[in-house]
UniProtKB/TrEMBL annotation:
Basic and acidic residues composition-biased segments: 38-52
Pfam families, alphabetized: ANAPC_CDC26 (PF10471)
Keyword hit for NADP: no
Lineage: Eukaryota, Fungi, Dikarya, Ascomycota, Pezizomycotina
Keyword annotations of the record: Ubl conjugation pathway
Record's GO cellular component terms: anaphase-promoting complex
UniProt entry tagged with the keyword Nucleotidyltransferase: no
GO BP: any one term: anaphase-promoting complex-dependent catabolic process
Stretches of the chain forming a coiled coil according to its record: none
Name assigned to this protein: Anaphase-promoting complex subunit CDC26
Location of the region described as Disordered in the Swiss-Prot/TrEMBL record: 38-63
Length: 63
């Protein structure tokens, strides 16, 4: 069996700074994509029947 030296990983402060900058950019992008709380209040909320097209003059009554 061959023996090798253990692998050593070295992180520099520059590596950490690059990682933190990338995470900060991702967080900003995620925040920009998230809708504002007031946007939902402006949208008209439809009932289940309206979403299914069951409300209105359809003449689709059962009886």
């Amino acid at each position: 069996m061959l023996r090798r030296k253990p692998t050593a990983i070295t992180l520099t402060t520059e590596d950490v700074a690059i990682y933190e900058d990338a995470r900060a950019r991702e967080a900003l992008l995620r925040d920009e994509l998230r809708s504002l709380p007031g946007d939902r209040a402006k949208q008209q909320v439809k009932s289940r029947e309206e979403r299914l097209g069951l409300v209105g003059g359809g003449g689709n009554s059962r009886g």
